[in-house]
Amino acid sequence: MAMRIVITIDVPDLEAGVAFYRDALGFEERVRPFPTFVVMTNDRAQIGIMQKDAGTRPAPGSEDVRSYERHWTPVHADFHVDDFAGTLARLRAAGATVEEELGGGDLPPIAFCADPFGHGFCLIGPRPVGGEG
Fold first, then answer.
1. Which residues pair with 94 in a beta bridge?
2. CA quadruple 75, 44, 48, 83: dihedral, nearest 10
């Protein structure tokens, strides 16, 4: 079965969401199929940015409501980049929170981050030359 995965990220402010993912991770706007949704791509990935107000329910019958403070979710995006230090600097400049950085030895550098809308994600750099796997 042919399949591709596209992650859609809810944000309270569409233009702020587009600006963050453009400035921090190099995504470019491709299309706005409707006024509250933007499809963004880079050379190897596609994401959707969708405006949804804080306090709204994600599905009929759900007791949960959207919150844009820092929150935990068992599903998150990993962004693998060639320029870890440069991308980390752009993330910070665009308003991301870098919660922890790890790496060294045979391990690739990794940073646990959150976008300005509270969504956690990981930034992962290349494995050091000579590293395992």
1. none
2. 70
- Residue with the two structure tokens 């320029």: 83
3 state DSSP class of 64: coil
Residues 6+ apart with CB under 8 A from 74: none
pLDDT per position as a tens digit, 15-65: 999 999 999 999 999 999 999 999 999 988 999 999 999 999 989 999 999
Domain range 7-53+69-124, its CATH number among 1.10.10.10, 3.10.180.10, 2.70.98.10, 1.20.272.10: 3.10.180.10
DSSP annotation of 126 reads P
Q: Residue 75: what are its φ and ψ, rounded to 5°?
A: -120, 130
Extents of the domains making up the chain: 7-53+69-124
Q: What does residue 62 show for φ and ψ, rounded to 5 degrees?
A: -75, 140
End-to-end CA distance of the chain: 28
Whole-model pTM: value is: 0.90
Structure tokens at 2: 């042919």
Contact call for residues 111 and 66 (beta carbons, < 8 A): no
